[in-house]
Specification:
The chain is α/β, with parallel strands linked by helices. It folds into two domains: about 230 residues, TIM Barrel; about 35 residues, no CATH class. It is about 40% helix and about 10% strand. It is built from twelve helices and eight strands. Strands 3-2-1-8-7-6-5-4 form an eight-stranded parallel β-sheet. The radius of gyration is 22 Å and the shape is globular. The C terminus is likely disordered.
Length: about 280
């Protein structure tokens, strides 16, 4: 970047602990992965090879090496971890991580019923050799977890060795920390933010409105995940207040108030009141 703007928030730089962007790779080709690295590798901290897609991906080792060379932590989706656990193949999974030369690993229980103490043991074992990201929350619609339990599980997993805990939303953004409409469970999220350090949480936010909501709640350096490969730069613009949804977040209030546009319906309402004596009287 060779120009400067005032009133733009300071962003952390790679390698970083906060302000992370995690991209969901659901089966990109090697060429598409190269394009991702070329266009936005400098903004991408993590790449998740979504759910079990790595099992069906050709040239997998080459793609992993490509991401790693760009300074991006890459890891297999938690669903694949669960598939190995469901089949009693944990040691095979550990061998796979070594064969693929993966530094990072995800531990989740969003699809299977896994005792939390058992999940903590897996985290502890894997954390001895890998950077562990553990996911909290169910992928199934209608399964509700109390805010207190979310907080307890997140803190227990961090204490067991997780580098970050991921707040589940699925790639659709309609479960876990979100309602089926895609709107955040504000009470749940607020309780989590009050009890778990923000730098330790990655909020899955695949939809722009969800990304906007978290940026407005937490700030430009909130950790966000499940970002589409072609949305990384657009998300960065959102973080920096260089997109309509967050345009006035970082401008001084006197400038923002002066420049903020009045919505057309608000203008229409004002005009109608001026023309209609009854409406004007009611407004008083």
């Amino acid at each position: 970047m060779n120009f400067r703007l005032d009133h733009v928030p300071s962003r952390t730089v790679k390698p970083r602990e906060e302000g992370l962007t995690m991209v969901m790779d659901k089966g990109l080709s090697l060429r598409q992965a190269e394009d991702l690295v070329d266009a936005s590798g400098h903004l991408t901290d993590l790449v998740k090879l979504g759910f079990g897609t790595s099992y069906a991906t050709s040239r997998l080792k080459e793609k992993i090496a490509l991401y790693q060379k760009a300074g991006i932590k890459v890891y297999l989706g938690g669903t694949l971890f669960e598939a190995f656990i469901a089949r009693g193949q944990f040691e095979d999974y550990r061998k796979l991580l070594g064969d693929l030369k993966l530094e990072a690993v995800e531990v989740s229980d969003g699809s299977i019923d896994l005792e939390h103490d058992v999940k903590l043991k897996y985290i502890n074992i894997l954390a001895r050799e890998h950077t562990v990201l553990s996911e909290v929350g169910s992928k199934e619609t209608g399964i509700l977890i109390s805010p207190a339990k979310w907080v307890r599980m997140m803190n227990d997993e961090l204490n067991a060795g997780s580098w970050k805990v991921i707040a589940e939303a699925r790639e659709s953004g309609t479960v876990g920390i979100y309602r089926p409409s895609g709107h955040a469970h504000t009470t749940l999220v607020n309780r989590i933010m009050a009890k778990v350090p923000g730098k330790d949480i990655i909020w899955e936010a695949p939809i722009k409105s969800q990304q906007t909501w978290f940026i407005k709640q937490v700030g430009a350096n909130v950790n966000l995940g499940n970002v589409a490969p072609d949305e990384v730069i657009a998300l960065e613009a959102l973080r920096l207040g260089l997109r309509g949804d967050t345009f006035f977040e970082y401008l001084p209030s006197d400038i923002a108030d002066h420049l903020r546009q009045v919505k057309p319906d608000a203008r229409a309402g004002t005009a109608k009141e001026e023309e209609d004596p009854k409406a004007k009287a009611k407004a008083k």
